[in-house]
C-alpha cells in the first residue's frame, strides 16, 4: 500500500468520526433548544442565548457534518492534494508511511479545531449582545473565560494541524535524520 492510499483511508476514517461527532453535537444542540426557556430574562439576553445555541448547536454541527461527509466521499482527492509532492520511487517506506500519518494527524487536528473555535465564536456573539443590551445585570467574566478556554486550544489545533498537513517535512527529517533515503 502506498502512502497516498493509506492517507486516503485515514481521511475517510476521519470523515466517519467527524460525522458521528457532529451528530452527537447536533443532538445536544436540539436538546438545549428544546429545554431553553426565558426564566424572566431580558429580551436581548434571551435572543443572545438562543442565537448562540442555534449557531453552536445546530448550524455548526450541520456544516461540520457536511465536511465529514465530504472527507468520507472524496478521501482520494484530498489525499492526492496533500501528497502531490511525494515521489514514491525514491522514498523510504517508513518515511513515506510516517509522512502520510503526519498529514493524517494534521487533517484530524484541523477538523477537530472547528468545534472549540465555533464555541468561542458563539461566546463572543453572546458577550457582544450582553454588553450592548441596556440594563444587563450579568457579568461577562465567565463568558470571557469560556471564550479563551475554547479559543486557545482551537487555535493550537488549527495551527498544529496546518503545519503537520502542509509543512511537516521538518518533522519527517527530524524523525529520520540518521537514515539514508533510498
TrEMBL record:
Keywords: Membrane, Transmembrane, Transmembrane helix
Bilayer-spanning residue ranges: 7-31, 51-73, 104-127, 147-166
UniProt keyword Transmembrane present: yes
Protein's name according to its UniProt entry: Membrane protein
Species in which this protein is naturally found: Caldalkalibacillus horti
Amino acid at each position: 500500500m502506498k502512502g497516498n492510499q493509506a492517507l486516503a483511508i485515514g481521511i475517510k476514517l476521519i470523515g466517519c468520526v467527524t460525522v458521528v461527532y457532529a451528530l452527537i453535537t447536533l443532538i445536544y444542540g436540539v436538546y438545549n433548544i428544546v429545554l431553553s426557556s426565558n426564566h424572566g430574562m431580558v429580551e436581548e439576553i434571551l435572543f443572545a442565548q438562543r442565537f448562540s445555541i442555534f449557531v453552536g448547536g445546530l448550524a455548526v454541527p450541520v456544516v461540520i457534518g457536511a465536511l465529514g461527509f465530504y472527507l468520507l466521499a472524496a478521501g482520494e482527492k484530498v489525499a492526492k492534494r496533500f501528497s502531490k509532492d511525494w515521489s514514491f520511487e525514491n522514498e523510504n517506506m517508513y518515511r513515506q508511511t510516517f509522512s502520510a500519518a503526519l498529514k493524517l494527524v494534521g487533517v484530524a487536528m484541523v477538523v477537530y479545531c472547528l468545534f472549540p473555535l465555533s464555541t468561542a465564536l458563539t461566546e463572543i456573539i453572546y458577550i457582544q449582545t450582553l454588553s450592548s443590551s441596556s440594563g444587563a445585570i450579568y457579568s461577562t467574566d465567565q463568558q470571557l473565560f469560556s471564550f479563551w478556554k475554547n479559543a486557545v486550544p482551537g487555535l493550537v489545533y488549527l495551527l498544529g494541524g496546518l503545519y503537520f498537513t502542509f509543512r511537516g517535512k521538518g518533522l519527517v527529517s527530524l524523525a529520520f535524520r540518521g537514515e539514508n533515503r533510498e
